Structure formats: C-alpha cells, structure tokens
Amino acid sequence: LQVGDRCYEEGMYEAAKLLYNNVSNFARLASTLVHLGEYQAAVDSGRKANSTRTWKEVCFACVDGKEFRLAQICGLHIVIHADELEELISYYQDRGYFEELIALLEAALGLERAHMGMFTELAILYSKFKPQKMREHLELFWSRVNIPKVLRAAEQAHLWAELVFLYDKYEEYDNAIITMMNHPTDAWKEGQFKDIIAKVANVELYYKALQFYLDYKPLLINDLLLVLSPRLDHTRTVNFFSKDAMQYAAESKDAELAEKLLQWFLEEGKQECFAACLFTCYDLLHPDVVLELAWRHNIMDFAMPYFIQVMREYLTKVDKLDASESLRKEEEQVAEPTPIVFGR
C-alpha cells in the first residue's frame, strides 16, 4: 500500500492503479483512475468504496471532464447528505453547469433519502433558470421545501404568482393579498383572491381590496362584497362608497347627478355625507336647490358652512363689481373734455 501511495504521489498512476487494485483499495483506486481519465472505471471503484469523500472526488472530476452522465451517478450518492449539498451545488454553478445541476437534482427527488434541502435548492434553481417549471414543482412539493428560503428566491425573480402561492401555504395571507394587488397582471386570480381575503389579519386590507376592485375589476365588486360583508364595518363601507360616488359626481360635471346624490344621502339619513358632498360638488350645485333640501329635512346646520361660502363668494363678486363701476366712472370723468366757454 505504501508503494502504491508513493507511485500515486509521484504521478505514476498506471503503477498505482495495479497496486491499489491488487489490495482492493477502491477509494485510492478511484482517485488514480480519475487522474488517468478512466471515468467509468473510477465510478465503478467509487461504488465499491462507497464513501462520500470518494464519490465527491469522482463526481467533481467527471464534471471537469464534462462526463455529466457519470457525474450524475456519483452526485446521487452525495445529495442525500444535506451537509454536502451546498458544496456540490457550488461546484456545478461556479462552472456554469446549471442545466446539468438541475437534471441531477430532478433525478434525486425520487430517492428514498430525499430531504428538504434538495427540494428547496431545486425550487431556487428553477426560479433563476427555469421559471416556467417552478409552479408545478411547488404544487407537488410545497410541503417539502423551506418556504421562507423559496419565498425570497421567488421575490427576487419577480415570480409574483408563485410568491402568492407560497404566502398562502405559509399562512401569510396579508402578504399574499398585498402581492396580488401590487402585481395584478401576473398574480391576481378571482377565486384565490376571495378565498384569501377572508383570512387576512389586517382589516385595513378589506378597504384596500375594495378600492383595488373599483380600480381594476369594478364589475366584480359585488362578488367581493358578498365575501367581505360579514367582516366589514358597514358605516365605514357606506362612507367609503359615498366618497367614491361624490368624486365621480364631481368629475362628471353633471349638476343633475350631483343633486340626485344629495337627495339620496338625505333619504338614507347620511347628513355628514350630505355636508361633505356640498363641498365636493360645490361648483355644480344650485344654492336654491340646496336651501330647499336643507329646509325640508331640517338640517340647516349641516348646510350652513356651504351657505357661508356661497355668501362670501357673492359678496366678493359684488365688491368687485362696485370697484369696477367706480373705476369706470373715474375714467369717464378724466376722459370727458372740459367745454370752452367764450365770453359774449
């Protein structure tokens, strides 16, 4: 054995090969065969040695020799050890062999000793290099991945739909809803949104969801309200929609619509909304109509700030007219020539 080691150290690999073979030192024989470029024989010796160290040496040599089929055979004996996985992945990635690394991990998923690290690292690789395969992988194996780690990878890769899927499985419902609202084109799905919104902890998200639907899917707002109605503060919800209705009426420039909205607020007993609408739709309203509505419903107090503003504007206009008229008369007096009177 010592002679074999000396031959190996001095680069006499053929001689070392014979000596190691004679004494059945398969670990050293595998190392020797790697140096000789006899990769298949090295794998066979590695199988007989059956040590992680030998498998790693032969695997890395096969990667360097671009013998990826043989490297995968060795790799399957390495990835089952969680503490060896990172080094193996780095060896492939540092050399740019992403496809071959993915193929290795895919082949390893069916092993009896497959562990969470393998499923997790494959998900991260998919997020970087094969995003189209990540969703199926997560649907099959979400319970076997390290979700926080994969969440970070999905976010960095801007895989918003996959991010929502993981947030849902991890019971981070608030983040799932926020992600769908921030990235609706990629992440929003009606059924999924309605399922998750009912589970959020932050009630403010209910009202953000209502605004999101008004902006993005207004025709589906009633479906969302059916889901949220048991959880909403009804007064706040009505005020939420009242504000939206006021804004719409103001932007429409339609005086009749604004006056109908005022009447509706009074019929529903929403005097605060009536008062707010007077200013939101100020330029569209006729003071005589407002006065009549306020008098009939005995809510002059709510309308008084509006009438003060109307009166202030009226007086300002009158003052401007008076000033303009005075200026005009002064100009006429200056411009009018003094008649010349000749003595008789």
UniProtKB/TrEMBL annotation:
Q: Which Pfam family, any one, appears in the UniProt record?
A: Clathrin
Q: Which GO terms describe its molecular function?
A: clathrin light chain binding
Sequence ranges of the CHCR repeats: 1-71, 76-222
What species is given as this protein's source?
Nothoprocta perdicaria (Chilean tinamou)
Report what the protein is called. Answer: Clathrin heavy chain like 1
Single Gene Ontology BP annotation: receptor-mediated endocytosis
Judging by the UniProt lineage, the source's domain of life is Eukaryota
Recorded hits in InterPro entries, A to Z, give: ARM-type_fold (IPR016024), CHCR (IPR055358), Clathrin_H-chain/VPS_repeat (IPR000547), TPR-like_helical_dom_sf (IPR011990)
GO terms under cellular component:
clathrin complex; clathrin-coated endocytic vesicle; extracellular exosome
